[in-house]
Amino acid sequence: MAAAPALKHWRTTLERVEKFVSPLYFTDCNLRGRWWTCWFRVELTIPEAWVGQEVHLCWESDGEGLVWRDGEPVQGLTKEGEKTSYVLTDRLGERDPRSLTLYVEVACNGLLGAGKGSMIAAPDPEKMFQLSRAELAVFHRDVHMLLVDLELLLGIAKGLGKDNQRSFQALYTANQMVNVCD
């Protein structure tokens, strides 16, 4: 006798299947097993419209990653260290190759270990690691620098508190920057 199928929410199931067959969506990728390592072969084709732009591979996974290019390790990737992109080219030239193959090694552990809740705790044997983002993107350095400046001014304002004149100056400067962007 066949077992009855598990009932799932229709819309959620439909969306998951649509994403699985769609080239526009990146599907979930769950990795399991502490200290387990897997490899991803990443074949990239940079659009011709991106000539003259800075191009990055954006990669976010729960574990530690290592990008390999031409058989050599070139850069580590980790959300914990806020290093989630690899610079493919500072400025894509007309004659630069648009297609390349990279390998990304992902280890199922955190930056400082695999402890449950902290790096010195015993490992969690049920912990799942997820690859949540893998995409090619144009990096807009001017926008990035603007965000860094805004975060710095916000940090100054919060750190100095409401009773400090410099706090107000930092906050109002950040507000003027936002107003110019509108």
Automatic annotation (TrEMBL):
GO biological process terms, alphabetically, are: oligosaccharide catabolic process
GO function terms (MF aspect): alpha-mannosidase activity
Q: Where is the Alpha-mannosidase Ams1-like N-terminal domain?
A: 31-137
- Tell me the superkingdom of the source: Eukaryota
Q: Sorted alphabetically, which InterPro entries does this protein's record hold?
A: Ams1-like_N (IPR054723)
- The name under which this protein is listed is MAN2C1 isoform 40
